[in-house]
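Narrative summary of target 7.
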Amino acid sequence: MSASEVPSACLDGAVVPLADARIPVTDAGLLRGDGVFEVMRLYDGRPFAREQHLARMARSPVRLLDGVKSLSYAANMLATRLARERGFDEALLLSPEEMVLELPTASFFWVGGGALRTPPLSEHLLDSITRRLVIELAGAREAPATPGDLETAEEAFVASSVREVMAVRRIEGRELPAARPVTEATARAVRAHIEAEHAGS
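Modeled conformation, tokenized:
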């Protein structure tokens, strides 16, 4: 393994070997979950949407946590564990008013009446970089929804930096149709955009 291939981490602004990246036990992020983070996927060693991720991180130390990738992910991880105990891969988060939000670590999209939809940012979701990309490329529209509205969904998928676009096969006990033309077209469009951006960089 060459020096450039040694796993590294950025800690307090310095890039250090992963084995040397240590957080003090007095760190507020460790003790209280007080901190923010970003996740960037690398393609051929280069981060995708680097500037957008860094800009969102710069906007994150605010008084309210809406739209922030906070270290306080305990509720999200609990939701994932509970979903897996019920035999599902992921949890679909709902607001106290029973409105569909997002997954613990991804945005949610569905097709209803032939139109691609996603919950609105006004429901206090994360303003995901990949969510924005799907809206731009596939023409998704923001629309509030309840779990009952999803009972007639023709397709559904999740989107994130790590997953890109991934089809949803089942919501609760309902199997979604095997034909997924919108999901597949969106996945191709997102992948083509990523490849074109990297080819030009």
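The first strand starts at residue 8 and ends at 11.
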